[in-house]
Specification:
alpha/beta; eight-stranded parallel β-barrel; 11 helices; binds 2-phosphoglycolic acid
Amino acid sequence: MRKNIVAGNWKMNNDLAETMELLGHLKSQLVKEPDAEVYVAPSFTNLYNTFQCLKETPVKVAAQNMHYAKNGAYTGEVSASMLKSIGVETVILGHSERRALFNETDEMLAKKVTTAIENEMTVIFCFGEVLKDRKAEKHFEVVKEQLENGIFHVSKAAWKNIILAYEPVWAIGTGETASPEQAQEVHAYVRKIVGEKYDEQTAQDVSILYGGSVKPDNAKEIFAKKDVDGGLIGGAALKAIDFLAIVNSF
Ligand code: PGA
């Protein structure tokens, strides 16, 4: 079943004290039954405390990345079983910052997706075109390629654990949002190609989030679009009041 979802990607922000403060605000202000499934993704060092703090709430905790290997000589990396051992069952993969700044390729992402699915984790899989591709009207092509190379190798059954997040790179952290129509157009296309690759039910059931400068004042309009099932929120997730306003924008 398709769900409304709002996920906060805190990126490399918030030390322990700041994390606990933000969580305190989120906990005290979150309504008992929010209209959306809510995720927060703090840094690795704050995952354990965040999970402990949110245990009794409906808010889920996601990691921002993980390695595809089971374990071994990968200095600086974190594995699926490490995340699961502290209660974290969800991971964001393929964020454009990981792709651009840390050279994550489709091939690596495909391996990470496989590992996450094998470990029964939920994957928030990000994809989206850069400005140059958008200007050349190649965005559908780029998005298709990223999905085909990164995630279309998984089985149909695995899709119950997959959330897609369309994040046009030109709209991330820039204050420039895709218009609700631009988002809808790509989301509808993504649903169509998921349907072609798998089947109509899989396409209808997958939640497709939009990410890129979503704020309290534009969330409602974007989320109102038929194929937009919520958002992956960066900057606005760092302030409880803004994040919760977005959560309540359905
Ligand atoms: P932004 O980031 O909301 O700050 O644009 C979104 C994201 O990177 O997921």
